[in-house]
Amino acid sequence: MHQIAPDAAGRSSVEPTHYHCYRWQGSGQQWEQIGKRDSLDVASRDRPPIRTCDWLIKSPSFIAAVYRDPVAARDWLINEWQTACQRAMHPVPDWVDTKARAARALQEIETGRWPTYSQWLTGGILVFLSVVGTDQTCH
Fold first, then answer.
1. What's the burial of 48, exposed, middle or buried (CB within 10 Å: 0-12/13-18/19+)?
2. Residue-level pLDDT at 26
3. pTM (2 decimals)?
C-alpha cells in the first residue's frame, strides 16, 4: 500500500520518491452515471476519487505522467490546466493568475498537499487533474 499523508494533514514523515500526474476526463452523463451506479463505492477504480490522496488506489490508467522532480510535475499540471482553460465551457476569469497558481501548486507539491484542479470543458466534458507523491516502487 502506498504511504501518503491524507489531504490537509501535516507533511508526511515519508518523502515521495516520485510524483504521479493524474488525469480523468468524462462526459457529464458519464459523471452522473458513475454517481448513480456506485455512489456508495467511493473506492471504485473507475471513478475519480473523493479525496485527492485516493488517486493512489485508482486504476493506473489515470496516470498521465510520472516525474521525480516536483517542478516537472507542477509544470505538467499547469500545462494541462492551461489546455483545459482554452477549452473551458465558461471563460476563466481574468483574475485567475497562472503564475500565482503555478507558485501555489509547487508549494503544495513540496509540502505534501497535493493540488487538484477540475474544469468543465465545451461539449459537457469534465476533467480532473492532480499531482500526488508516493514513495512506492511502482514503475
1. buried
2. 82
3. 0.81
